[in-house]
Amino acid sequence: MSPPASIRVVVADDSALMRRVLSVSLRHAAIEVVGVAADGDEALARCQELAPDVLSLDLAMPGRDGVSVLRELRARGLEIPVVVVSAFSAAAGAHAVEALAEGAFDLVAKPTSREEIDAFARALVERILLAGTEGRRRGAPSGPRDRADQLARIDARLARSSSTGRHRVVLIACSTGGPRALAELLPKLPARVGEGTLVVQHMPEGFTASLAERLDRVSALTVSEAAADERLDPAHVLLAPGGKHMRLRQGGLIDLTDEPAIGGLRPRADVTIQDAVAIWGERVLLVVLTGMGKDGLDGAAAVRRSGGRTIVEAPSSCVIDGMPRAVMAAGLADAEVELDSLAQAILAEAGS
Q1: Which terminal residue of the chain has fewer beta carbons within 10 Å of its beta carbon, N or C?
Q2: Does residue 295 have an active-site annotation?
């Protein structure tokens, strides 16, 4: 994949070695590194001066840290997509999740060994390319009449769902932009939803526990990283751990497996969705949020065959609309709903 010549990047990291690794990886992919920074204040100065298309941002830097840089960029009106490049630790995981919820485009985990550098470079280049191109493609938001009609339809389904008492298992699939979308969606849901909620969010191993902890603090629902043998519960949201496939068995019990990655992904939402359909059939509600790629497409086909329902986030509110658009293009979406209305739509379909 050849990047557009216009992609210009500032690299910010307090490690001279890491700045070199990042810069060499990007230049080998014909991406222009227009500036480097060793701390947060220098990163801000380079962004102000050079107006890059993307900022590659370390979080643990002397003085102003990465999250503060991200907030200050927004305060200055500098709408520069930020790709967080972070080592994992308990503290770093929490900061990375905070940065994603604050609007960082995506996260790449730093390599922990020489053997991981090639995979790291591929992931870095992929995220920088997306941030510099597709991440800026947004449709116009719905007009007032469209939004009013959409909400009226959701209210009508909610009334029907409440009258029949029918509840569904909710399965949410998301990738790039997902932490920010989840941070808006989950706090709007009540303390009980359907028969329980599962989330498959593509993140590096180790970071999903921090994401679950942050979402739990702001939600009426209990949110946690899934553990083996846990059971679905209407008051609980279970988040697939990074580096594991989340499988399901009869009775709504969780299995976590080290089966090979599928399409480079582990966890993969399709695996969990297909297990859910095998158990609950037409009682599955699939929600496909922002993300790149086509994870969720095979799962949506299984949901359709079983008589379940699929809602996709409207492309106009997505950071990256690849996953929802793949489902829409296949004719498998039952509803297309903007992020700020999704909680209401989920309750209309799944009950509480």
Answers
A1: N
A2: yes
In contact, 285 and 163? CB cutoff 8 Å: no
Options 25, 56, 58, 202, the catalytic residue: 202
245 belongs to the catalytic site: no
- State the Cα–Cα distance between residues 115 and 143, nearest whole angstrom: 51
The type of residue at 194 is G
3-state secondary structure of 49: helix
pLDDT in tens, 274-312: 999 999 999 999 999 999 999 999 999 999 999 999 999
Q: Where does the chain have alpha helices with state H?
A: 16-28, 40-50, 66-75, 90-101, 117-132, 144-164, 178-185, 208-218, 269-280, 297-306, 322-329, 342-350
- DSSP per position, 53-64: SEEEE-SS-SSS
- In order of their start, the domains of the chain are 8-136 (3.40.50.2300), 145-350 (3.40.50.180)
Q: What is the pLDDT of residues 23-61, one digit of tens each?
A: 999 999 999 999 999 999 999 999 999 999 999 999 988
Select which of 295, 298, 317, 341 is catalytic: 295
Q: Which of 175, 210, 219, 317 is catalytic?
A: 175
Q: Which residues of 134-162 are buried (b: 16+ CB within 10 A; e: fewer)?
A: bbeeeeeebeeeeeeebeeebeebbeebe
